[in-house]
Amino acid sequence: MAMLRSLEPEWLDTLPPDDPRAQHSRRDLRRINGLMGSAAFVARELVRGSADGPPRTIAEIGAGDGTLMLRVARRLAAPSGQVRAILVDRQPAVSPRTLAALGALGWRAEATTADVFDWLAAPGGGPFDAIVANLFLHHFEAAPLAALLALAARRTRQFIACEPRRSRIALAGSHLLGLIGCNDVSRHDAVVSVRAGFHGRELSALWPVAGGWVLRERAYGPFGHAFVATMDGDGMAGGAAVR
Q: Could you tell me the pTM of the whole model?
């Protein structure tokens, strides 16, 4: 029987960015992202979703400290022109060093402190080639998550999400993070994240039906759950095709 989805507050969301426990937990998240292979997955999907090479405009919602996008940038082929990247989070956690590292790769990156719903709904922001969400969507109940995805669908031609997989194996793994030096915040939040994670076609069911999207949703690695929505290049109408 599948685990029922349940949401609880995560400790990292309640701590200021300069809190030592929060800083330790963000370092833990970099290792967890590495173990999950999130940067490699996102980079592959960004290339796969564009016939003209890597996208030129990318936004990451719930970007945290921005290091996931930096890892993605390092994996992509050097662009012929600058890539514009917007890192959106409600806490100002992106360091000048991370922005400088993205700049050295030819990316024009900026960090934006904002509520994701306000940012997605704001007029005049322009469309993005891709919007990325990493370990972020599981924070929302179904109704607000559906609203978030509907807003994102109006701002991009490709949406990529890497989330925790809600499974017994992933839950067991989340209880073992102390073995790699994760602190109390990370250990607590990992268990909470898995219980709030996804499986099957749960995210596909929340994506807006109209608009000609191709949806792919699957498990990846031992602990991850991936969702990718790509606007059909032929301008397909009449709904979303699930693959």
A: 0.91
Catalogue the E-assigned strands of the chain.
57-61, 83-89, 107-113, 130-134, 158-164, 213-220, 224-231, 240-242
Domain residues for the domain of 122 are 15-161+199-242
Closest of 202, 187, 140 to residue 2, by C-alpha: 202
3-state secondary structure of 54: coil
Distance separating alpha carbons of residues 89 and 12, to the nearest angstrom = 13
Of 79, 86, 77, 87, which Cα lies nearest the Cα of 56? 79
CATH number for the domain harbouring residue 234: 3.40.50.150
The per-residue pLDDT for range 28-62, each reduced to its tens digit, is: 999 999 989 999 999 999 988 876 667 889 999 99
pLDDT tens profile 138-177 = 999 999 999 999 999 999 999 999 999 999 999 999 999 9
Nearest partner of 94 among 116, 109, 105, judged by Cα: 109
